[in-house]
Amino acid sequence: MSPIRLIIIGILLYIGYLLIKGGRVDKQRKDRKKSEIRSPDDVSDVLVEDPVCKKLVPQNQAVTAEHEGERIYFCSEECCKTFVSEKGAEK
Ligand SMILES: [Zn+2]
Fold it and tell me: Residue 68: which residues within 8 A CB-CB, separation 6 or more?
């Protein structure tokens, strides 16, 4: 066997080793990611700012309105109405 062939075999073995090792790391990462993914309705800790009274409200409890294609969140219907009457947003 020529030394060049030995080197090539060595490189191939090394690449194979890296692939196996890399694949394992990837799988571990994927498993970890899976456990980090939250269910879509778990937004109770996402806070949004009410532009009227500047209060922070949990997104899932906020009153929402569309303004210029943007979704805006309010702490209450009252703030929403105030915003709509000030900005003239369509309900
Ligand atoms: Zn408010």
Answer: 89
Average pLDDT over residues 27-34: 65
Nearest one of 68, 70, 49, 51 to 59, comparing CA atoms: 49
Compute, in angstroms, the gap from residue 11 CA to the centroid of ligand 1.
65
The pTM score is: 0.49
Distance 21 CA to ligand 1 centre (A): 53
Q: What share of the chain is helix, strand, coil (3-state, %, to 5)?
A: 55, 20, 30
Taking the C-alpha atoms of residue 71 and residue 54, their distance in angstroms, rounded to an integer, is 16
DSSP conformational letter for 40 = T
